[in-house]
Amino acid sequence: MFKAYAAHEPKGRLEPFEYDPGQLGVDEVEMDVHYCGICHSDLSMINNDWQFTRYPIVPGHEVVGTVAAVGDQVSHVKPGDAVGLGWHAGYCMTCPSCLSGDHNLCTKAQATIAGHHGAFADKVRARCASVVKLPRGIDLESTGPLFCGGVTVFNPLVQFDIKPTAKVGVIGIGGLGHLALQFSNAWGCEVTAFTSTEAKMAEAKQMGAHCTIDSHDKSKIKSVAGKFDLIMSTVNVKLDWNGYVETLRQKGRLHFLGVQPDPLSIGMVPMLFKQLSISSSLVGSPGTIATMLDFAVQHDIKPVIEKFPMAQVNEAFDHLKSGKARYRIVLCN
Q1: What architecture is the 152-280 domain classified under in CATH?
Q2: What residues have CB less than 8 Å from 257, skipping those under 6 apart?
Q3: ∠285-282-244 over CA atoms, to 5°?
Q4: pLDDT at 199
Q5: Structural class in CATH, domain 2-148+283-332
Q6: Can you tell me the distance from the alpha carbon of 233 to that of 323, in angstroms, rounded to the nearest whole number?
Q7: DSSP-assigned beta bridge partners for residue 122
Q8: CA-CA distance, 153 to 141, in Å (whole number)?
Q9: pTM
Q10: pLDDT of residue 197
Q11: Do the domains 2-148+283-332 and 152-280 sit in the same CATH topology, yes or no?
């Protein structure tokens, strides 16, 4: 029996929960969970914000642990290996997206916490393609958030072939944004942080921003018109997107990583004349995750974390909901 923490209704508290995972599949990996990050997506799933949560739900998709057992067809990891698991716990492996290396775009992908029990638990299982072996020298206790937040901000740098000479803006310095600053800086880019929180401006510079701009000050935003090659938005609130479009240079891109609550309303004239792009993405493929982890080790990129024992999962969620978390929460077994 696996011992976990589950919510049984929307906005419910997490309670001890046991379940029998059944026989280990030939292509599955069973992990002993040592650390698991808390992502805002876990809270959204508990609350059924996206209307596809199945209860009881065991959240947890930023997983670091060791291999406990492998199926007969698993060859890339073995018992005792340090591994991680992110948003996806399996892929179909036969669709055009999987065959081209874009596993995260597989329409039949199995989410780790949707119709599948996640890693707020002592153990978790996933199909082998989703389980990534950790590079030597990585800091295990802070690695979990890289499997969701880290790859989410790293993926655009790879997908859009961002040059190390690019000028990158990051909107929102939170769980995603503080990682976007670190990765963009290490990539070689000139990085600007947009934040409305004065206390975060100094922190943003410590984490890789070369300069900061008050996102509530329209005159400051206008002062950087035509500057950026890429702006990554990590927020889930409505902003003056046309103002940010004006800050893009020719062929620039406004890329959304946060879930927007309202439809976008963006004027087409600057889009047309400057050949601009609007795009979005979530997480990344196992290959991109592996590359991101290697890059993080080489450049000493780590999430800023606060730790809670797994048994204090509800207290950890209360801290997340308070808005005071800096910047990711990690549960420890």
Answers
A1: 3-Layer(aba) Sandwich (3.40)
A2: 152, 153, 156, 176, 180, 232, 233, 234, 280, 281, 282
A3: 135
A4: 83
A5: alpha beta
A6: 18
A7: none
A8: 20
A9: 0.96
A10: 84
A11: no
The amino acid sitting at 200 is K
Cα dihedral value 24, 29, 30, 36, nearest 10:
-150
Low-confidence ranges of the chain (pLDDT < 50): none
Residue ranges with strand state E in the chain? 2-6, 15-19, 28-38, 62-70, 82-85, 88-90, 110-111, 123-127, 132-133, 167-171, 190-195, 211-214, 228-233, 248-256, 277-280, 305-309, 328-332
Tell me how far apart the alpha carbons of residues 62 and 97 are, in angstroms, rounded to a whole number.
23
Say what the pLDDT of residue 196 is: 87
pLDDT reported for residue 260: 80
Give the strand pairing for 228-233 and 248-256: parallel
Structure confidence at residue 261 (pLDDT): 78
Contacts of 7 (CB under 8 A, 6+ apart): 13, 14, 15, 46, 55, 56, 57, 59
Name the phi and psi angles at 82, rounded to 5. Answer: -80, 125
- Dmax over Cα atoms in the chain, in whole Å? 62
Half-sphere exposure of 24 toward its Cβ, with a 13 Å CA cutoff?
Answer: 20
Q: How far is CA 71 from CA 27, 64, 81, 91, 128, in A?
A: 5, 19, 14, 16, 9
Domain positions in the chain are: 2-148+283-332, 152-280
